[in-house]
Amino acid sequence: MELDVRKFFQVTSPSRPLDIENEDDRKYYIDFSSIRGGPVVEELRDRITFFSPDEPTCQLFTGHIGCGKSTELRRLESELKHEGFHVVYFESSQDLEMGDVDIGDILLAIARRVSESLMALDEQIKLEQPKGLQNLLRGAFKLLQTEIDLSAEASLPGIGTVSASTEGNFSAEVGIPGIGQVTANNEEGVSFVALGIGKIAAKTRNSTDLRSKLREYLEPRTTNIIDAINHELIEPAREKLKQVGKKGLAVIVDNLDRVWSKPTAWGRSQPEYLFIDRGEQLRQLNCHVVYTMPLALIFSNEFSRLTSRFGADPIVLPMIPVVQRDGSTFEEGMALLRQMVLARAFPDLSPEERLQNQSIVFDRPETLDLLCRMSGGHVREILRLLNDWIVKDRKLPLSRRGLEEVLKQKRNQMTLAIDDDEWELLRQVKQRLQVIGDRGYEVLIRSMFVYEYRDGEGSWFDVNPILATSGKL
């Protein structure tokens, strides 16, 4: 059996989450729920499909950046569709400037994505004119028309070519996946909302001044925005969807865990402001919503306020354990990580056949085990190390020497960023298996110096295995 090294490099890219709806991607998926503290996706799904199918729900989902949340959310999307729901999944980082996000930005992004999704169902879903949203957007156009050339054409990602007049009228050639080119204008209802918000987002994303001006307009109208989205978009859509056999509408907002933790002008961190101070408004949409949330808020002194805002604890996706609290190897975790790597090479083989053919990919089994251990069970990290390793060796089987060089380079990069106080914090984590307070989070976990794991006794923490080899602990 032959394996093309270039194809192997491409399918191990750490930057692309698996789309479970895609048959090829589904072959690469490994279910880690048995060692991650329970069936996380099933819990998110069942709160919607079993416990409250006809009532709006709002859930928070969090974990380390890169631990596999997006892949699990794509699985949730697939399972909700299988249960008969119309699902709108989107990555908020494509719509928002993550260093400067306000509540109005999130609400408009949701309105835009829901509107786009309904445009793809235009033959089945006919909504009344969303006059409140249209008037809101026209007010924004009027406010910004000195800064935005509304007579210009723009090519917007996910939208197509948009032409806008200074009166706020739109026409567009919209490319919708699975549908093709759709001609839309503001007389076609939701198309105006989708295209208008897309136009504003494209023009304000890279301008702090324009975003500030827009927010001055949106902030006092937040309640009106929520009401308009609910009454003109979500609620009519839910009724129409049920008429065509759907059980309801679910929106999955991914990548909000990536909002920067910088303080706002009044001293609150951006995550605290969005999810604690404004959390009540995030949960007022009258459909099922799942937001990803920064893990930092788990360590916040105001965690209890967060849970009271949303009415439930966030669901956490922990790391994949490769060792246990006592430092011994966790064999089940190692076995599943081996399968995750080998599935990228041999997606059509059984787990047993993959192990039998691993010599095609690695010079010896111990080399694959070293990769799994040094990743610390971090999904994106193991793929990033593997990707760098393939580039370094440029041929198969991959050598232990090549992996050791990649690990050494990674360790050197990480240690350059650590000062004496942080080394002391790392020593405390190594001894106590704990991270205390939000400062510990910011310094250690967000920087991927420390990973969180969960077992029958609860949470415990350990130093990134690559750093643990530095000799400074």
SSE topology sketch:
Blueprint: H1 5-11, H2 23-28, H3 40-51, E1 58-63, H4 69-82, E2 85-91, H5 103-119, H6 131-144, E3 153-156, E4 160-164, E5 170-176, E6 180-185, H7 190-204, H8 208-218, H9 222-243, E7 248-254, H10 270-277, H11 279-282, E8 288-292, H12 303-310, E9 315-317, H13 331-345, H14 351-356, H15 365-375, H16 379-393, H17 400-415, H18 420-432, H19 437-445, E10 450-455, E11 458-463, H20 465-468
Parallel strand pairs: 1-8, 1-9, 2-7, 7-8
Antiparallel strand pairs: 3-4, 4-5, 5-6, 10-11
Helix pairs in contact: 1-16, 3-4, 5-7, 5-9, 6-7, 6-8, 6-9, 15-16, 16-17
Question: What does it look like?
Answer:
The structure is a single chain. This protein has 473 residues and is α/β, with parallel strands linked by helices. The protein folds into two domains: 1-26 and 318-473, no CATH class; 38-126 and 208-317, 3-Layer(aba) Sandwich (Rossmann fold). It is 48% helix and 13% strand. It has 20 helices and eleven strands. The strands form three sheets. The chain has a five-stranded parallel beta sheet with strand order 2-7-8-1-9, sandwiched between helices. The chain is globular and about 65 Å long. The relative contact order is 0.13. Mean pLDDT is 87; it is low at 146-159 and 161-187.
The CATH C-level name of the largest domain is Alpha Beta
Oligomer designation: single chain
Which consecutive residue ranges, at least 5 long each, have pLDDT under 50? 146-159, 161-187
Tell me the span between the first and last alpha carbons: 44 Å
Number of domains: 2
**Structural class by helix and strand composition:** alpha/beta
